[in-house]
Design goal:
Number of domains: 2
Number of strands: 7
Largest sheet: 5 strands, mixed
Strand order of the largest sheet: 2-1-5-7-6
Structural class: alpha/beta
Helix content: 55-70%
Shape: elongated
Radius of gyration: 25 Å
Strand content: 5-15%
Oligomer: single chain
Length: about 550
Amino acid sequence: MGVETETERRPGRMRDGLAVAAAYPVALAAGLLVWWVTGAAGAGFSGADESAHFLNSYFVAFYGQTAFGENPLAFATEFYLHYPKISIGHWPPAYYGLVAPFFLVAPPTPAAAFALNLFVSALPALGVAALLAKLDGRRAAPAGVLVWALTPLALEGQAFLMLDQALAACAVAATIAWLAFAERQSWPRIILFAGLAALAILIKGNGWLLVFVPPLHILLTGRWRLLASPLLYAGAAFGGLLVTPWYLATAGIAADGFNYEMGLGYAWKALAFNAGIMFDNVGPIGFAFAGTAVLAEYRDRRATPGRWTVAAACIALILATLALQSLVPVDIADRYMAPALPPLVVLILVGAARMVKAIARPRLKWAAASVACVALLLPGTLHLAARAPKADLRLEQAAAIATRHPGAWLIDGGSGAEGAFIAAMAVRDSRLEHYTVRGSKLLAHSDFMGSDYRLKFADAAAVAGELARLGVGGIVLAEGEGGAAFAHSGQLKAGLERDYRLAAVLRHRGRPGTTSIYRSARPIVADAQAIRALGLPDKAPR
């Protein structure tokens, strides 16, 4: 079965579009399943980056509502001095600019953010359905979307507010746009690809993987004539103009997030880990189906060049993701493989369809299809069954108590807890009357990623003196089952009894642990100048 030409496909294009759109609710249903199993919608933020993405989006909306027309850097500086968790600069601004209007009409709460995340995290499903419709017809789209939506990576994308699924959706859309340009070169098609690639890069730095997609696709398909097209270089220049100013301005901040040194050691380590993540998400049978599809499509590439063009685009996106994550030593994390998962699932479904079609007897055909379906859904099903509920650290309730007492509040308990409390305080403080201080930054030395950890103070008495100097009137301490997680947390807790009184204890939901709220035993006024002097990160643009 070959891919039809554009003219031949035109009568059925609307039906294909409807089939692709109809597959999207399948991914939404999977997201609702995740909400039910993990309690993610009501648990709030607990991941290290979740609250930063939320607060960055809220900040853009807040600026538009209250300070539009003022110097945005000056306003961001003022906001940061009160709520030191916004991090536009470490991450690019596109996602936050797109999400901010939502918070102009919806309440800025974790529940609202997760409702939006449900729809954003399901977007890669449209790319899966569109690519499958090109290869094996519109009937294959719902099955492929279901397989993708129930992989562990896609499931975690619904449980946590992150950028990776938005990036994956943009990467698949850009790859499809490149396919359209490879089929017929035109200004609208190359501008569409360049614009989507730039959007991906301005959503997250991992979007630079799309730079690798065109050369890899040309290499795989042998369409060397594309290299002679002036439109290709015009598109590259257009995309570069969109993204280069931002990355030149924020290169120093983004570099703080690099956890490794570039080199062969990192490359092999990252490549092995990332290949293992893809294997874990689809299982050995899924990998076997994908390999079957690649070999079969390559073998038939001259007989059905249209099919090979689409399959090669899927391969190119997978290899581009692996290449970027193996070359750029930012970190090694499973979610970085999110852009590679949709094209991998497409190849898996193509391989499975070839296997089923090769069986002559109808009963065996149905049996084989059923076994394949169960095998492909097994990794995600087992992951969801074994997954613990998402932790609710009760920091929304802690912030509701804290905002009744203006002044300075210190939050300690790890990056996730700090960010969740700061975000909850910020959305309740439209006049910027409160100050929040991060325990991990006040009481210890560490870089952006939390490494190179060292204590700042010798003992609990020195910590108490610093709190008195700043005029910290309240302390929120989030602890897991084992108690204080860091050495500075132990110092902080040891010095609380003399100057602070326990006001409330909130038990965590979903995980063992408590969030304790302490108030100063005597009236205390925050020293705003001393708190502000704690300052911005050294590399922040001023």
